Amino acid sequence: MRTPSLTGSRAFNAAAEHLSFKRAAEQLSVSPAALSFQIRQLEQSLDCELFVRKSRQVQLSAEGALIQTDIRAGFDHFERALRRLQQRELRPCLNIACGPTFSANWLSPRLHSFLLLQPQLDTRISASLTLVDLHRDDVDVALRFSSDNQPDCRVIKLVDEYMTPMCSPSLLQDGAPLKEPSDLSFHTLIHSSSCDKALGIRSWSQWLERAGETGVNPDKSGLHFDVPDHALNSAVAGAGVVLGREVLAQRDLEAGRLCKPFELRMKTQFSFYAVVLEERVDEPAIAAFLTWIKQQTQVKSQ
């Protein structure tokens, strides 16, 4: 078997991604005939067919499917290495991905202290619910509310998350009594649709069950939000009682905008983690950020 050419491997990678020679050719800025020729040469060097060719489409053969993942990973590593080389000539950059609520309520208010320690870094935050691929996306560190099962990555636990009822202090002073869980029947319950079993987020019904309270209907009319910090903001305004997440509400709790009327708190299934590719843990910018964020979470736990 002859050593496969890089050009042919690149043509295969694009065609395998699109399952179309035409779209792959457009991506690589070559003609479909040229791309087909490159793939034919690759198949000859490997002595096997990588695609099943049909009249209007192509599919990966068993051999093509066998090598696709590793070929794609190889090109991803190659492109990432080139980006790192280019960045050496520019201002050092650190790309961090995290959820919008965590970014707004926890990370952003603290990030200035990191910038004071690392003024030479161009720090960029990508706030999205999309799960980034650290192998392919231009992201250095991912901050995730998840489990610690992250293959090929260094996973650093930052902080556990707990949920408990929260409300504005003014609600306790001027509203109906809120001394016992049964008093929740006199208040508007604020819900967030992020209370998703897949994320291990607790619901009002679970909290009331743990509290042994059967006289409060968690399904009564209330306020429902699809973004957690919107639910917290509603509680800050005195609209009702929210089953809030302590990490996300930490700033509001410390500032006295929210309070916790009950001691009962429930741990969520998942926790917050910093996730980095294993081979990149010791890169200076990444190492500095990990050291800083671990210090931030230690301050929270003390």
Please give a structural write-up.
The longest helix has 27 residues, at 62-88. The chain has eleven helices and ten strands. It is elongated and about 80 Å long. The model has no long low-confidence stretch (mean pLDDT 88). It has three domains: 6-88, Winged helix-like DNA-binding domain superfamily/Winged helix DNA-binding domain (Arc Repressor Mutant, subunit A, Orthogonal Bundle); 93-159 and 270-301, D-Maltodextrin-Binding Protein, domain 2 (3-Layer(aba) Sandwich); 161-268, Periplasmic binding protein-like II (D-Maltodextrin-Binding Protein, domain 2). It is of the alpha/beta class.
Topology of helices and strands:
Elements: H1 6-18, H2 21-28, H3 32-46, E1 51-53, E2 58-60, H4 62-88, E3 93-98, H5 100-107, H6 111-117, E4 122-127, E5 141-146, E6 153-166, H7 169-174, E7 189-192, H8 204-211, E8 223-225, H9 228-236, E9 241-245, H10 250-254, E10 266-277, H11 284-301
Parallel strand pairs: 3-4, 3-5, 7-8, 7-9
Antiparallel strand pairs: 1-2, 5-10, 6-9, 6-10
Brief account:
The chain is an alpha/beta fold and 302 residues long. The protein contains 11 helices and 10 strands.
Name of the CATH superfamily of the largest domain: Periplasmic binding protein-like II
Q: From N to C, what is the helix and strand string?
A: HHHEEHEHHEEEHEHEHEHEH
Low-pLDDT windows of residues = none
How much helicity do the residues have? 40-55%
Shape: elongated
Strand coverage percent: 15-25%
CATH topology of the largest domain: D-Maltodextrin-Binding Protein, domain 2
| Strands ordered across the widest β-sheet | 4-3-5-10-6-9-7-8
Largest sheet: 8 strands, mixed
* First-to-last CA distance: 62 Å
User: Structural class, judged by helices and strands?
Assistant: alpha/beta
The CATH architecture of the largest domain would be: 3-Layer(aba) Sandwich
Q: Give the integer mean of the pLDDT values.
A: 88
Counting DSSP E segments of at least 2 residues, the number of strands comes to 10
CATH class of the largest domain: Alpha Beta
